[in-house]
Amino acid sequence: MAGGGNRGAAPVAAPAWRTLAPPAAAAAAGVVLAWAVSGAVGGTWAGLARALADGAGATVLGLAALPRLTDRHEVAWRPLTVAAGVWFAAELVVLAGDAADIVGVPVTDLAPSDFGTFLIHLSGGQIGLAILAATAAIACYSALSFRRPATASPDLVLIFAAVALALRPVTGHMSQQALGSVLAAVHALAAACWFGLLIAMALVLRTRGDWAAALPRYSGLAAPLIVLLAASGLINGLIRADGPAGLLRTGYGHILLAKLAVLLVLAGLGWWWRRHWVPRTRDHRGTAEDSLRNAVVELTVMGVAFGLAAALAVTA
């Protein structure tokens, strides 16, 4: 598919990467909030790296899936390549941090031999290595597709991105529970689709017609996604915290409750959008600037949830 063009309209403007600043700052705030409510000491940098990796992965998935949401646009290969590169780098930082924790040294003092041993001989390193391979493949394929869009397809990106996003959750602590891997995969992919599609829209859509075509379809997907996200996250959390009482007495439970509170805010915001933003946009009564502003507001709140989720993953 061709790179980033708009059929029958003027070329799409370059992606407004500045729209990523508010959700990125919110994700960092979410990580800090997680450590504040849990009373934990340290781990902030690991949480920030995890949030960056998850956010970049969701962005890759959303950019690859956007043409399935609206046929007005083809794949924006250039921003997809950038997002994949950021994802690879963030996953590398996460892996280095995991290895340093196991060795018991600061990440800056991690010896290459120890890092290699972690990647080759320990299950956590092997999983991370597989994720690195998938993200590197996505980055390389996207870069080539930008040069030769006529022969490129987003399907390979979608497959590799979905596997990379779900691989760590499905092999984590929930894999030891009945249906735990399924719940973990559903949770990870629902979050990535929900966040990723909206951020792809904010980066690519530039006209009122673009938003009118895409937003109602996204709104129809967002409601079931947030239900899946909340249900799977709550079940996982209750199992991890050993029941409702554990939510109140453990730092993990405190982070989970904060995340659920943010999800409730997002659910309320989504209800408001469906009553006001979506109808106005569908009927071409709202401007592209209004839609972009509303999208950034929602993405910023989502960023807090992503930061909390990243800290939750590090805590687990």
TrEMBL record:
List, alphabetically, the Pfam families matched. CopD (PF05425)
The record, for PANTHER family, names: INNER MEMBRANE PROTEIN YEBZ
Is Zinc-finger found in the keyword set?
A: no
UniProt key word Cell division: no
- What's the main place this protein lives? membrane
Q: Which UniProt keywords apply?
A: Cell membrane, Membrane, Transmembrane, Transmembrane helix
Q: What superkingdom heads the lineage? A: Bacteria
Give the Copper resistance protein D domain ranges.
213-312
Its transmembrane ranges are: 20-41, 79-100, 120-144, 156-176, 182-206, 218-239, 251-273, 294-314
Q: What is the name of this protein?
A: CopD family protein
Q: How does it sit in the membrane?
A: Multi-pass membrane protein
Coiled-coil ranges per UniProt: none
Q: Where in the cell is it found?
A: Cell membrane
